[in-house]
Amino acid sequence: MAYTIFILDNHTTQETTISQVLKDKFGYNTIVSDSADYGIRWIKSCSQPQPDLLLIDMLSSGEDIASIVRQIKTCKSQLPIIVMAQYGNEGQITPAIAAGADDFITKPVSLNRLKLTLENAFKIQHMNNEIARQKRKNMGHTHLSDLVGKSEHFQKTIHLCEMISSLDTPVWIHGEQGSGRETFARAIHGSSLRAGKPFIRVDCEHFSDEITENTLFGNAEPNGTLKPQSGKFQQANGGTLYLHEISGLPHYLQQRLIGVMDSREIKPVGSSLSIPVDVRIICSNSRDADDLIAVGEFSNVLFSKMCKNYLPIPSLRERIEDIVPLANYFLNSAATAENKLPPVLSEDAIELLKTYPWAGNVRQLANLLSRVVLLTQLDYVDAATIRLIQQIEPVNYTLPNTLKIPENSDYLDMKGQIKKLRSIEREAIQLALKHSDGCMTRAAKNLGIGRSTLYRKVEEMELSNLYAARKPDYAPDDAGFGW
């Protein structure tokens, strides 16, 4: 993937020339501006694409280059900055270097010198990123820059994560099992102001009601004194509480969680005292929230509080371009852990990985390649080896949750996926209204619900046009039969 260089240059002709050289001669992508304010706003706002390096040539314009550098380094400390200056005026660069600029170039500059300076800057950046990544890994921390991918879906997700990490409000992460929801949650935490503070995980799916309540809020001794750090909220104080598969929480605990989010206080089990907590909540779920709310399994109020930052995680099937870089990352990680050299994937192995449906998403890919490293001593891995290890055969791509039922089924959408319950309900109401020629009484009777219920649903679904042309046989009331 080509690097992107942001050029700040008040010499219109020169900036165009430099941009053309960087694109045509060196293969870089460029963003060009003659306004320092515009460049600072672009980088601070995380506008896309984000640059991998900033090149500044504005000394002759009287701009305070040191101030520009400081403002950029404040929000993007790892972004390499190179300052250009006319030969003989190198002294003007000193304040910029002191402010954090990484290197400088004197003009006129040769192509070889420019190329070497840029390459060195990227090498140093890569080395610093690797050192920082290893330190975070050793400490059990994750940063957004640690995540691997280059696809459009992945880049959009990272861009959204960068904006979310700068906030301190709840996050709702939705994605298939194995898609990396917890990894993204940890990266958001590690890139936020709460980085370095506790990140506490709670699996809401496999606890009994009593254990879950004690786990979340802690409990008190028989004499009423509080057990220190006995609940996950207390353990996460100052940091992030991650609620995995939050839809597994019983209804009464959903209500308690709403109260905690409103008051920012918890009341341990068996205690009459409330304890203030400073916790950011990030939750995840693999099931669709609308479906859960529609069938009454999840609180609409809690969802509205949690989804202030809604983060959809793409499946691996939507990130085909990321399979190879992810595969190489997992091979390197597994090989390092086993004190081996990572094997190289053959072309047919890469093709097999890219065409396999990956029902288990990134987790399944990681497990497969870990087994490749563990079970072989090969320097070169082909498709036959992968098939042998995972015992898979070439198959036609099929979504794992697509059902083999008649194509004309009223319960499937155009992609073969089961329709949302609300969509089916909407279609049923539309059909009933058309069949009854807009008569609400007959439509409600055919649907087996009360007129008041039907009126409410028609208003909610904005279907009033289907009976607006006809005068209602009588007004809705609360005395009708039905649900």
How much strand content do the residues show? 5-15%
CATH topology of the largest domain: Rossmann fold
Q: Indicate how many domains the architecture comprises.
A: 4
In DSSP terms, counting alpha (H) and pi (I) runs of 4 or more, how many helices? 19
Please give the CATH architecture of the largest domain: 3-Layer(aba) Sandwich
What's the N-to-C terminus distance? Answer: 57 Å
Shape: globular
CATH homologous superfamily name of the largest domain?
P-loop containing nucleotide triphosphate hydrolases
Largest sheet data: 5 strands, parallel
**Adjacency order of strands in the biggest sheet:** 2-1-3-4-5
| Overall mean confidence score, pLDDT | 82
What would the keywords be for this entry?
483 residues, 4 domains, Rossmann fold, Helicase, Ruva Protein, domain 3, disordered C terminus, 5-stranded parallel beta sheet, alpha/beta, globular
Topology (elements, then pairings):
Layout: E1 4-9, H1 12-24, E2 29-33, H2 36-44, E3 53-57, H3 65-75, E4 81-86, H4 94-99, E5 103-107, H5 111-138, H6 152-165, E6 171-174, H7 181-190, E7 199-203, H8 209-217, H9 232-235, E8 240-244, H10 251-263, E9 265-266, E10 275-276, E11 280-285, H11 289-294, H12 300-306, E12 310-312, H13 323-337, E13 344-345, H14 347-355, H15 361-375, E14 380-381, H16 383-390, H17 421-435, H18 440-447, H19 451-460
Helix pairs in contact: 2-3, 6-7, 13-15, 14-16, 15-16, 17-18, 18-19
